[in-house]
Amino acid sequence: MKPLPTDRPVVWGDDEPSIPFIVAAAEVPLADFERRWGPAHQRDADGDGLGPIRYWGWCADCGFKFVVEFLEAQNLFQVLTREDELDHALAHLDWWRGEVVWRVDADKPRARDGWAVYRQDDTGNRHDVCVMTNRSHAECLARRLEARAHKQWYAVEARGTPPVPRARPREGWAVVRQDEHGNRAEVAVFSSETRARELARAYDAEPRHKQAYFVEHVPPKF
User: Fold this and answer.
1) Distance CA 134, CA 127 (A)
2) Based on the structure, what is the number of domains in the chain?
3) What global pTM score does this model have?
């Protein structure tokens, strides 16, 4: 997995975690974790009153972005991602053996709409693992689960009404991409100008060919 940048805002896209950020807690020896994933990408000495916190952030090959933090005082790891991506994050971390001691969805029913990752054994019995919003991420999870399965296979199928992208706000601040010929395309619209400018700076910081990103106000439509 590729570490997320620490010197500029992260372009989250649809992976941006919603409140609450923390979706799982795990007990893993820090030395073992660092041996596998390397030293922390960042460290906050105060941790907003919780004591020192170490952070790791990655973008997986499938494009999925997530963060893991280690609370030094509690000797505890926490996973930060969208709730429906929890199993996906655990699969990328290779946490299969009881490392997780708490998960936010433990007492919740599975979502009815989305892309279901299900398991089927050699006798035809099926069992849902989770239901996710992003189809490509669900397919990635199915592949990772099947790679370690014995006499089982995993697949993805639509359930209920497939998720649709959220409608952009009618007014706010648009991040606009423009190429060398003056062709423009709207990338995203935010209600916050600060948020829009952070995204534009993040895109501009990435190596791109003859493209520029800027922010402009989107007036309300009546």
Assistant:
1) 19
2) 3
3) 0.72
